[in-house]
Design goal:
The protein has helices at residues 15-22, 27-34, 38-46, 55-69, 73-79, 93-113, 117-122, 151-163, 191-201; strands at residues 142-147, 167-173, 183-186, 204-207, 215-220. By secondary structure, it is of the alpha/beta class. It has a five-stranded mixed sheet, with helices on one face. The chain is globular, with a radius of gyration of 18 Å.
């Protein structure tokens, strides 16, 4: 079976672009709000999620995008083409999860619209299994983020982690500033939650002594071109 020929363009405005334009925001303004690059914003709005280093990185960028624009459950379901639920709702943890699910559906729909040779290559990569869903909720975990290379990237990374619902306990300096890559550190009993956060950030996970099962340490190393 052969893949369909790549589409030259995605109809504009795309659902995400429509949401941005409804708020009278430029791509530059959204990039400033989210900490994403203007190029990453364009990738999301054009459905070119294969340009991200991983599916999780694209998913995370979509969640950060939706959070910065204040897209609620109703609008997320409409953008994703899902049935509209009657009645109102309260903004709580469950509602936030529904928004995430709807944005995930939207990104998946956009991905199908754009098929390219890059996507064919991406399909050959090894996919890391998603950890067990029966884990402590992100907001039940305390995350410390330390600057190991660049303070701007550290703050951006902390914002992304906070946007996923994790509790940020502290943002500060690492023991040195020559870390080449970012990593998530977990203590005894915290391997599963450490792997989950590392999977979400598309970085490495490493064990470390002195951390409790509900504590995670993120050291922000030098960002890659795609992460900036």
């Amino acid at each position: 079976m052969e893949l369909a020929h790549p589409l030259d363009t995605v109809p504009h405005p795309s659902p995400l672009a429509e949401a941005r334009e409804r708020r009278d925001l430029s791509i530059k303004q959204v990039a400033y709000r989210t900490g994403l690059s203007e190029q990453e914003i364009e990738w999301l709005e054009d459905g070119r999620i294969y340009r991200f280093p991983s599916q999780n990185a694209a998913m995370l960028a979509g969640i950060v995008y939706a959070t910065a624009l204040g897209i609620d459950r109703w609008e997320a379901r409409r953008l994703a083409g899902l049935p509209m639920a009657p009645g109102g709702f309260r903004v709580n943890a469950r509602a936030r999860l529904i928004v995430v699910a709807a944005i995930a559906g939207l990104l998946s729909a956009l991905a199908v619209m754009v098929i390219s040779p890059d996507l064919r290559v991406a399909r050959t990569r090894t996919v890391v299994p998603i950890p067990n869903a029966n884990l402590p909720k992100p907001w039940q975990l305390n995350v410390t983020v330390l600057n190991g290379s660049d303070i701007t990237w550290t703050r951006t990374l902390a914002s992304r982690i906070g946007a996923m619902g994790y509790t940020i306990k502290h943002v500060g300096k690492a023991d040195r500033f020559d870390y080449r890559t970012s990593s998530v550190f977990y203590g005894p009993g915290g391997r599963a939650v450490g792997l989950r956060l590392a999977h979400q950030l598309a970085v490495a996970a490493r064990p470390a002594p002195g951390l409790k099962p509900n504590q995670l340490l993120v050291i922000a190393g030098a960002p890659t071109a795609l992460q900036q």
